[in-house]
Specification:
This protein has 54 helices and seven strands. Among the domains are: 160 residues, Rossmann fold (3-Layer(aba) Sandwich); 77 residues, no CATH class; 87 residues, Serine Threonine Protein Phosphatase 5, Tetratricopeptide repeat (Alpha Horseshoe), CATH 1.25.40.20. The chain is mostly helical. Helix content is 50%, strand content 3%. One of its GO terms (cellular component) is cilium. This is ANK_REP_REGION domain-containing protein. Keywords: ANK repeat, Repeat.
């Protein structure tokens, strides 16, 4: 489902990687519309394509195309044009575009574009709000020229957004992606163990660098505490060391395939190139996909896709790969014409002897192919022709001939070849839309059986002519016997098409000819509904005169009046259409599937006819299925005039509540409408009202960093109000990182330190959300820096366990104590020891004042904890960098060496001995480390310690050994982190 364009405008992260700065700049351009084109530029790997994909997901984006450097055909004008055209037809069901051949689009691009896009789109009614399309990676000159042409031919209500490395047009608006706060947040999110400044400098602003390195760290392929390599290439070489040895061949195969293969296909072909067992290759591909790919590592039928930059790293050497792919297509049982062409492509680029290549192609039926244009590239075409494939001498385009209306040209084509029926059908659609009467007459005479045919199950010539108001064509087709109500699978008749397009004369002609006025389409909508939705008053008037049912309902229970009001337009024509429907007894009391009557929709959109509709249905507080009144809907959408009318004139209940217990004031606060909030407060709306979640309006308002929004809702009572989770508004503002609002609220109340029902405070919520600026702001007010949860775990521990190292450093730097202990007496150093987190340990050492010799309730040091967990890296750090004493004993008298002896870890025993661990130290039961090793059955450790001691150990071996400090308590730490969850505040389904 597409997301609204405003998504992210208030700082919400997108897929865990915020680009709020860029999105804000984009919104500013789109809403002001000073230029029809926006260029997004940035250095390589600066996230241009990622951002373009985010833009393609919003509802106002009608089409998008992504050019790939590794797939040259993706940047060719015919590919771009067709891609955009197909998406526009899906977005606008009444748009019909001619199917032009590649040759036409290549050889006569200007004229082809004119007929393919400009003419069809010119007759389209403009949308109620601007829309845009996205073209990513506009790098080569050919694509740049195409974009300039699109700017000229597309209607003014379609804007164009392109991305490229450098600016291509000095007259366009510019949005430059560079290193900003969004990038810093991304680094902290993906690489919490690293210094932001180091990564920023090493990556040179490359989002790919951060994403790729983070994935390698997450999979354990690269140590988390390593120094970030300088530059993208060095980072890739570092990651490549962890990849299987077959990596280069497998990636080259993917590159050579031309069309990205599935993992299944890649596995089949790689066996021909790589001498490894199939199970090993399958594992290799899975590892490569997990580490550098973009597809799921679990689904073998998904496309194997890696970023283009990896192709550059592994270089060319593609001859062997082409040979492998050729073998794959050669051994395929059932070969389509496309398979034969792919085989020819790989043979022509391999080291295969040309004569053998020709014989191979002949054996698979290449001689039966008829080529209408060059296939893939010239070497491929030449090889196919050598194998007997026939190249058509002409490059006729039947659809294009019909589009331009050149009858003599089409006649010449028909003398030379037998056209495909679908081409004639599409040609007739195009000729009918263009009003080419002679062409339509010619086609109707020569192909009478196709005149009433539907292309793709929906469009026929009659509907095409009606949609574009071509009266002569309508007369001709009706004279030829076409049924006036003929329609395809969508059940959309010519009358409905003409009504939707506002073609008054065509509507009159079709009705006069006997068109069924209330014929329903697949959505149960009539021509009247289509005209009402598009606000075509004159068309609505004519259809009503022919007896249309004004109160017919569609599948969603909506009438023509519902659809007219849902358009949301406040133009005069819309109001006139609404009045006309009401004059002809449109029933304002009919409820749609959501239980909404006309008054609900009019209030929601702030319709100028709101008063007139209320007069027809004077129940101002009527509720829909969610219990929402018209006032609530108007308030939720910021329709101030409608809110003022409903409250002052219509006397709506300002404190009415819906099924969730929310009032109009709360809905205005939820959606961030300060003017509506101010007005509702001025007329007596209760700002202290609590909904079913126990939240007041201020709880919702503080999710926006908008001080003016919260001012009118703020008083001593609301600031300190707690919802059913025990959270007050300051906590929510802190959790959302809304600095300005929190600062304002702190000037009114000192409740900042009060926790919720789970023991969380504003400080802990802000910290867990990585809002370090909030920590800076509230630190002078904090009275309890330990911030323990219900399990007694200090916040510093939780931050470290959550990999929020940079947040922990800020938190500890402001006043938190690294010596704060949990219910088992463990401090921060025990936590980093238990998780083998060297980066966090370095952070603790950096802030200073940390006791690395601290003991828990069992008398165990961090070194003992690390040894119990078999963590060598952190043990080395504690011994070497922190200089901890390896001979400290716990309450049982056990040393770290005794623990290593019990668990049988030879590496740790050697490490401890190297740093001065004493083998002769006895525990409380008189046992040395060697005794413990003997009890535990670790003979290699016994031998090692004997060689160190030069003795057979002590006597008096007991029967018990030290207990691990992690046995029961580790789970409690993990539980503590999982409990830090923010409850969902707003049910989006209720908006």
């Amino acid at each position: 489902m597409r997301q609204p364009l405003s998504h992210g405008a208030h700082g919400a992260p997108l897929d865990g990687a915020p680009r709020n700065v860029a999105m804000s700049k984009f919104l500013e351009w789109f809403q002001q519309a000073n230029s029809r084109r926006l260029e997004i530029i940035g250095k390589e790997h600066s996230g241009k394509t990622w951002f373009a994909r985010k833009l393609s997901e919003v509802s106002e984006c009608v089409a998008s195309h992504f050019c790939s450097h590794d797939e040259p055909q993706s940047s060719e004008p015919p590919t771009v044009i067709r891609s955009l055209g197909e998406q526009l037809m899906r977005r606008f069901p009444n748009l019909v575009l001619p199917r032009l051949t590649t040759v036409t689009l290549l050889e006569d691009t200007v004229s082809a574009l004119d007929h393919f896009l400009r003419l069809p789109l010119e007759t389209m009614p403009s949308t109620s709000k601007p829309v845009f399309l996205v073209i990513d990676s506009v790098e080569d000159e050919e694509t740049q020229v195409l974009v300039e042409m699109l700017v000229e031919i597309l209607p003014p209500w379609i804007q164009i957004v392109t991305t490229s490395r450098d600016r291509t047009n000095s007259e366009t608006e510019l949005l430059e992606l560079h290193i900003d706060s969004d990038f810093d947040k991304f680094i902290r999110l993906k690489l919490p163990h690293c210094h932001v400044e180091e990564v920023r400098e090493a990556s040179d602003g490359s989002w790919f660098y951060v994403e790729q390195l983070a994935r390698a760290v997450e999979l354990g392929m690269v140590p988390s505490d390593m120094v970030p390599p300088i530059g993208v290439e060095k980072m890739m070489h570092l990651v490549a060391r962890s990849l299987p040895r077959s990596f280069a061949d497998i990636v080259r195969l993917a590159k050579t395939s031309r069309n990205r293969p599935t993992r299944q296909q890649l596995l089949a072909v790689s066996q021909m190139l790589v001498s490894r067992d199939i199970s090993v290759l399958e594992k290799d591909i899975r590892i490569i996909t997990s580490l550098i790919g973009t597809a799921s590592s679990e689904n073998p039928s998904e496309i194997f896709h890696v970023p283009d930059i990896w192709f550059q790293l592994i270089g060319e050497e593609n001859f062997r790969c082409h040979t492998a792919w050729a073998e794959h297509y050669k051994t395929k049982r059932r070969k389509s014409a496309q398979d034969i062409c792919e085989l020819a492509y790989h043979l022509s680029h391999s080291t295969t002897n040309p004569l053998n290549a020709v014989k191979t192609l002949q054996s698979v039926g290449a001689g039966n192919l008829v080529l209408r244009c060059h296939v893939i590239d010239l070497p491929t075409t030449a090889l196919l022709k050598s194998a007997g494939a026939r190249m058509e001498e002409n490059n006729y385009d039947v659809v294009y001939a019909c589009s331009v209306g050149d009858v003599s040209y089409l006649d010449a084509i028909l003398r030379e070849m037998k056209p495909v029926p679908m081409d004639i059908c599409f040609g007739l659609l195009t000729a009918a839309a263009r009003g080419n009467i002679e062409m339509c007459r010619f086609l109707a005479d020569h192909f009478p059986h196709l005149v009433a045919s539907s292309c793709c199950g929906e469009w026929n010539a009659l509907r095409s002519a009606a949609c574009y108001g071509q009266l002569e064509i309508l007369h001709l087709l009706l004279e030829k016997g076409v049924d006036v109500d003929e329609c395809g699978h969508s059940d959309r008749t010519a009358l409905r098409a003409a009504a939707w397009s506002g073609q008054l004369a065509a509507v009159q002609l079709l009705l006069q000819t006997g068109a069924e006025v209330d014929r329903r389409d697949s959505e149960q909508r009539t021509a009247l509904m289509a005209a009402a939705f598009m606000c075509h008053k004159d068309v609505v008037s004519v259809i009503i005169q022919y007896g249309a049912d004004v109160n017919a309902i569609d599948k969603s229970g909506a009438t023509a009046l519902h659809l007219n009001l849902s358009n949301g337009s406040k133009q005069e024509e819309n109001s006139e259409t609404t009045k006309l429907l009401l004059e002809h007894n449109a029933d304002c009391k009919i409820e749609d599937a959501n239980g909404r009557v006309a008054l609900h929709l009019a209030a929601y959109h702030g319709d100028p006819c709101l008063q007139l509709i209320l007069e027809k249905h004077p129940i101002v507080d009527v509720m829909d299925n969610m219990g929402q009144t018209p006032l609530m809907l108007a308030a939720s959408q910021g329709q101030l005039e409608a809110v003022q009318f409903l409250t002052k004139t219509a006397k709506a209940d300002v404190d009415a509540i819906d099924n969730n217990g929310r009032t109009a004031l709360q809905w205005a606060a939820i959606n961030g409408h300060p003017e509506v909030v101010e007005f509702l407060c001025s007329v007596g709306s209760d700002e202290g009202h609590k909904d079913n979640d126990g939240a007041v309006a201020l709880h919702y308002a503080v999710t926006h960093d908008h001080v003016e929004l919260v001012k009118h809702l703020t008083n001593q009572h609301t600031v300190e109000a707690k919802d059913r989770y025990g959270q007050h508004p300051m906590m929510i503002a802190a959790a959302n990182g809304n600095l300005k609002v929190l600062e304002y609220l702190m000037g009114i109340s000192d409740i900042i330190n009060q926790p919720d029902h789970e023991g969380r405070t504003a400080l802990s919520l802000a910290s867990m959300a990585a809002h370090t600026s909030i920590i800076d702001l509230i630190s002078p007010r904090i009275t309890d820096w330990s911030q323990r949860d219900h399990d007694g775990t200090p916040l510093a521990h939780t931050l470290i366990l959550s990999n929020l190292i940079f947040v922990a450093e800020v938190y500890l730097g402001h006043g938190a104590n690294s010596s704060d202990s949990d219910a088992h007496g463990r401090t921060c150093v025990h936590v980093v020891a238990s998780t083998n987190d060297v980066a966090a340990a370095k952070m603790l050492k950096r802030i200073g004042g940390v006791n690395f010799e601290a003991v828990d309730r069992g008398g165990r040091t961090a070194l003992m904890t690390a040894v119990w967990a078999k963590h060598v890296a952190i043990s080395v750090f504690l011994l070497d960098s922190c200089g901890v004493d390896p001979n400290r004993t716990d309450r049982q008298g056990a040393t770290a060496l005794s623990i290593a002896a019990q668990i049988g870890d030879r590496d740790l025993v050697n490490l401890l001995l190297k740093f001065g661990a004493e083998p002769e130290i006895k525990d409380s039961m008189g046992r040395t480390a060697m005794d413990v090793a003997m009890i535990s059955g670790n003979e290699p450790i016994v031998s090692l310690l004997q060689s160190v001691n030069g003795s057979s150990g002590s006597s008096g071996i007991g029967s018990s050994v030290p207990n691990s400090p992690l046995d029961a308590s580790k789970q409690r730490i993990l539980k503590a982190t999982s409990s830090l969850r923010m409850p969902h505040r707003i049910d989006n389904n209720n908006h």
